[in-house]
Design brief:
The complex is a heterodimer. Chain A is α+β, with helices and mostly antiparallel strands. Helices cover 39% and strands 22% of the residues of chain A. Chain A has one domain: Peptide deformylase (Peptide Deformylase, Alpha-Beta Complex). The two termini of chain A are 34 Å apart. Chain B is mainly alpha-helical. Chain B has 2 domains: 39 residues, no CATH class; 92 residues. Helices cover 50% and strands 5% of the residues of chain B. In chain B, a hairpin with a 2-residue loop joins strand 1 and strand 2. The chains are: A alpha+beta, B mainly alpha.
Chain lengths: 205, 149
């Protein structure tokens, strides 16, 4: 899942942002450009819509081995570089039930074979982005609180009681493992608009 | 932009406002209909990124595997010519650790790094050039197939 906060800042305060750039020190600008370059490189390794891998249901993980540890490490690096707050294995073409998420101000967690065992009846609709859907952002209704269970990459049981952004992120990533995207969860009008943005545009040369 | 305007871009005569001499060979598409593949191609930023940094890791790894295999074949050929007695034993004890480690890493990471397309029916990755992307590790049988005992 794309980092909402960064996105909001870029879109909603575009003028202020440009204005800030005018007075930005060259070193800050170079750092920003470097971050943007790293983000593009990371996104180039994340499967983008309409890649069929994004529509496939992931399988349960049965082997907790070195490969799984290495896979999770790679996913964490990619998510960090792409400036996301969550990433599912299907987004990099691995059809296994694994996702990682990073609650605000905390280190990232990896959850293997996750299960959402409780979700609140209270729901909230907020805009979401996705690392596999470019700049598309659509409103999605999600439970405000969830309880997530699963295993860590070593095979030990884990349980998270989450609310707010973290609850939203894990529901988003959990959907990925079933081949469900935010464009399937939004209203028809926003879905139509998003599909229009995602349609390949011919380039005249 | 119509096809006709694309067809004649070569003789428009100016580049950044400066009159340019028309060189026929400079535009191989001049006078030809632009292929659909080119007309519909997207200038994705990721393609620029991918091409700007030189060969990607999976490309370099594949090259290294090929070079190591060639090196093994050269050395095996030499050893085969020098020593036929006990060849099976030599073949089975041949050290392929380095190349097999690279092959194992290729089998694990290639489809991810190359974003290899997936076949939704088989739920596996598509074949590359008609062959599975996975490579078999080298062992004594591989040697004996090429240099029989």
């Amino acid at each position: 899942m794309a980092d909402d906060h960064t996105h909001d800042h870029e879109h909603d305060h575009a003028h202020e942002h440009d204005h800030e750039h005018d007075h930005e020190a060259p070193a800050d600008r170079a750092l920003e450009q470097e971050r943007a370059r790293i983000r593009r490189q990371a996104l180039a390794q994340i499967r983008q819509y309409p890649d069929v891998a994004l529509r496939m249901k992931a399988r349960e993980v049965t082997e907790f081995d070195d490969f799984l540890i290495q896979l999770v490490e790679r996913m964490q690096l990619l998510m960090h570089d792409a400036q996301g707050v969550g990433l599912a294995a299907t987004q990099i073409g691995v059809l296994q039930r694994i996702f990682i998420f990073e609650p605000e101000g905390e280190v990232g967690y990896a959850v293997v074979n996750p299960r959402i065992v409780e979700s609140s009846d209270v729901k909230l609709t907020e805009e979401e982005g996705c690392l596999s859907l470019g700049d598309v952002r659509v409103p999605v209704e999600r439970s405000t609180k969830v309880v997530l269970e699963g295993k860590d990459p070593s095979g030990d049981e884990v349980r998270f009681e989450l609310e707010g952004l973290s609850a939203r992120v894990v529901q988003h990533e959990y959907d990925h493992l079933d081949g469900v995207l935010i464009i399937d969860r939004t209203d028809p009008e926003h879905r139509k608009q998003a599909l229009g943005e995602l349609r390949p545009q011919p380039t005249l040369v | 932009m119509s096809d006709s305007s694309v067809r004649h871009w070569g003789d428009s005569g100016t580049l950044f406002g400066v009159k340019q001499p028309y060189v026929e060979e400079a535009n191989p598409l001049d006078g030809e209909r632009l292929p659909r593949r080119l007309r519909l191609s997207r200038a994705d930023p990721e393609r620029y990124v991918a091409s700007a940094g030189g060969p990607l890791p999976y490309m370099r790894r594949l090259r290294e595997i090929e070079e190591l295999i060639d090196d093994h074949l050269d050395r095996l050929e030499q050893a085969y010519g020098e020593r036929r007695a006990g060849w099976r034993r030599v073949a089975e004890r041949w050290n392929f650790t380095e190349v097999n480690d690279l092959i194992e890493r290729h089998n694990r990471w290639y489809p991810l790094e190359a974003r290899l397309a997936m076949d939704p029916r088989s739920r596996d990755f598509v074949r590359v050039g008609g062959r599975p992307y996975r490579r078999e590790p080298l062992d004594g049988a591989w040697v004996l197939e090429r240099f029989p005992a």
